């Protein structure tokens, strides 16, 4: 099979192909769910799968390789091939993906002298070893070897860190490493390039800008959106990331093709779940830690259910397939000769005499507008606010048959021996469809459809109304039969393209047999799977067997009989150390660590505890009593009470995820320096001088020019100072620039030790104005003589007290303080034709982790936006153990299992 490309598109076996790719990560769901998700992607018109390969999944401990079970990425690629799906393989080694450490294994940060994503000998030594293993799996599944891997990516989004020239040595090493390992399909990059690889663009909006950049850099390669952000990730304590609506998603897809992109990878098409500790952390604030769900507001939700975005993606995919002969070999043209009303935009692409117009509206309400073409012909177009409507002008349907249409089409191929055209529009709208032919068009249908035919019989114009009931129009043109099916979007969403020429739903022949089974002619790859309820054809009970297609009442198992084991902080006996160690240095990749130390005080008092190096949330206890939860990290402080004498200070730290993007990858997790008492913490967002004006960084949005702000501060006899929060560069203290290599102002958070720059008395900070609001900017000062002495560390890694000396007492009563809650429940009995999805709601609990049958399901935190947590049914046994670790020891009495909202619909099986 031949795979080539030119400046317009990729070409497979001599045919131009629009790469409609679904980003789906095998490592974010159980293996048993792969087939369902991939089939649903294919049925939405996706012809390609884009997947990262997560190094930390495959080598969780150095030399301990795992390619089995849910980590069997080779089986995932084989399944893609079985289903006839091309693959874009993205082995990294850096993948970002809101995944812990950007995909790097935790142990890599312990290697002496390692620097990540650089031309660094230590780092590249281990990258090369990883490439040896991962490319062995990819290589044998390339198209050149009989598989379906067509593109392989070099690194990932490196252009966000530096330019191509600076990146050349590093990126060239990775490129050459892939080639030397036998990768012979074309290489690609995204956001930043390297010689010998095709560069793509990652974006959600601004298609024109990104297209122009790619044309300038690589005029002779196809232009694809390597990540088209269908939604967005969510992090703890933030609003739900649902701002990218289905309507806007559809518009953005049309923006991409009107610009000239001939490939879109929908990131994500299915997001899945950040099980275990694999949720990452990103820049923008100190505490942007990913939630356990990676739903991403994607076309398929976390449970694999279809959403309105799914239907938008399917409609778009069908349109691109139907109009592909025009789009994939087209050029933009000047539409200045087309007259359009104010607030209406018209863009165009042309392939010979065939044209497509993209009509957009910025009006406030839906309106039928009129376009006057260059030849004087005026066409009505109904367009909604913020929508783009495709208008086809002269699309070649058959030899000698051309189409003019003011709405989208979804089928333009032979179905059951008849060339078939589907036109659709929103419910209750009208559309104009005109056919021009070299020969007479015969129309003898007695349906009451408004139409007009030219005197010579070679042009017929329809005025279609898009009813709920499909309409089927038959024409004969020069001895060829043409079928026109007219649908509204509701009917369109119930119409499916199984493969070329194979459709069901709409007006296509479908038989419903007894038992509700759907019989259709399908290829083996699709008939090999159960057909989910999302795709069943709705039929009134009178049309089937007399039995309604009804809902099934399902009851989830009850959670009862909880047994609680409370962490006895007073008995914690950890490993002694002079200075606290980070998680990796303590050989604990994830979970919790309890840091303990004794502080002597000469009186009863309040003091400010400074923790200059802390990268995760920390719950602080003094003499067994909880003082508070530290959320803002990097460097932090908290007021603590001390009584006269010895005080037991303990800090419970959860690894909340390593940075998945930043020039500072590999940050130590947990507490990795001692603490200091008698410090000060000052919010310094106010009191900045801008000329003669004094401004508060949280209360301004713009300042004139390239504003440099300044502020004075005192250190009150302390010899140490840390500036933490939204600093900006260049940063100067007392006239000296503080080096912040790699830092960019849009990161909006850094912890900077400025101890070497401070002086007694007044000190001056200078930095440019970058943004408002500034959520945090603090000055922490302390004296090195007030350092806390010896520490001990105890790990809580696996849902039960570790061997580090933590003891627990069993009780059925909830006590104040961290606790494990355990219960058992039976596997639910479900009807064979009900495709249920199970989730856990943790009402009343605080923050912690969940285990199911010893499998770490991830972190929870009841501050939103996530409320429910996925429990894969494939991980259930006949009797199941559920364990919750709750940092505050809150009662699990209100925790419950639920079936997701669509699980009461029946499945329909495809046969054929």
From TrEMBL:
> What InterPro entries has UniProt attached to this entry?
BetaGal1-like_ABD1 (IPR048912), BetaGal_gal-bd (IPR048913), Galactose-bd-like_sf (IPR008979), GH (IPR017853), Gly_Hdrlase_35_cat (IPR031330), Glycoside_Hdrlase_35 (IPR001944)
Q: Give the Beta-galactosidase 1-like first all-beta domain ranges.
A: 580-679
Chain ranges of the Beta-galactosidase galactose-binding domain: 818-878
State the superkingdom: Bacteria
Q: Which keywords belong to this entry?
A: Glycosidase, Hydrolase
All residue ranges annotated as the Glycoside hydrolase 35 catalytic domain in the record: 10-315
Q: Which family does it belong to?
A: Belongs to the glycosyl hydrolase 35 family.
Task: Please identify the protein, giving its name as recorded.
Answer: Beta-galactosidase
